[in-house]
Every structure is written in C-alpha cells, then in structure tokens.
Amino acid sequence: MSETAKTPADFWFDPLCPWAWMTSRWMLEVEKVRPVEVRWHVMSLAVLNEDRLDELPEEYRELLKTAWGPVRVCIAAEQQHGSEVLGPLYTALGTRFHNRGLERTRETIVDALAEAGLPAELADAADSDAYDKELRASHKEGIDLVGQEVGTPVIAVPGHDGEQIAFFGPVVTPAPKGEEAAKLWDGTLMVASIPGFYEIKRTRTQGPIFD
User: Which InterPro entries did the record assign (predicted)?
Assistant: First the structure.
C-alpha cells in the first residue's frame, strides 16, 4: 500500500442501533485524522435475533418489530444504486432516528431517502422480502468475522499479515472527535490485532449522547 493510499475500514451497521450510530460518527472523525476510508455494509439485528426472540426482554422484542424495514431499504438502495449510497443514506436515517427521535415510519424513511438523493420508491422495500437474500448475505459476511455473540457494529481492517482484523464496537459515548478519535482508533487496532485477545468491557453508566 502506497503512502497516499487509505486503509479500508469495512463497517457493518443496522440503522436501528443507537450505539452503532455513535461508533459510525466516530469513524467519520477517524477519516479526518487517519488515512482511513470507511466502506459501509448492512447487517441486521432482526436477522441476528430471529431464532432467539423468546430469550429476549419484551421491550427489545418490541423494538425488533420495526427492525426489518430500515435494513431492507438500505440493502435495496445498495442493490439498485451501488454501495456508495449507503453512507449518505445511513447518515440521513440515523440523524432522524437517533438525533431527532423520529419514528421509523415510511414518511421518515422517504424523507431520509430524499436527503440522500435516492428515489422515494425505495421505501417500498421496507415491507418486501425481495432483497432478503442479499441482506442475509451481507449480514453473514460481517457477523462471520466476529461470531454470533455480538451485534452491530462490526468493523474489519486489513492486518499487516494480510488477514483481516475484525471486532465488534467499540461502544463509546459521546463520539470522540479530533485527536481523541485518533487515539481510540490507534488503541482499538492495537488490542484487536493481538492474537487471542477477545474483550475489554465495563458497565455503561450513561446512554448515547447525540451531538
């Protein structure tokens, strides 16, 4: 890789998840301070949890009832208009769902599509299984890198030996900016690249801070 080339960072997201949203906003900061280019991919909390709904809290089961629509719209947009539309569409959806607290309705999705420069008809995909095969394939590609015991986001970057370094998270709030974003990126890659390293964790004491 040349000095001017950017490191690809593959990022799997479900627009439903506020913590993935926080991580994604951090990654946009990382792009400003490190030679990194984020490549967006869709994964699905609905797919991840479809075989274990009985084990989940009722509140989370209710949340998942609205999980199919947004990811189906995202995968339809990617299939019809290319992967480059996913970043702008994710930003438009996430801003509405999380920062503005809007309901995950067709109206909200259509508004997000318009902001991303995409046709309103893509909202029809929310209630269709036409692209579920592609959705499941995209989800599987990401989740297979880290295993079934995590959620969204999943990030993967090429390691020095050519093998991918993949991990769930990091879970952080608020999204670090500037040098703090760079420090978190450098540190995350450092620990994730150690063979046999699996987890650092502490109890969350606050929810996502959207700014």
Answer: Rv2466c-like, Thioredoxin-like_sf
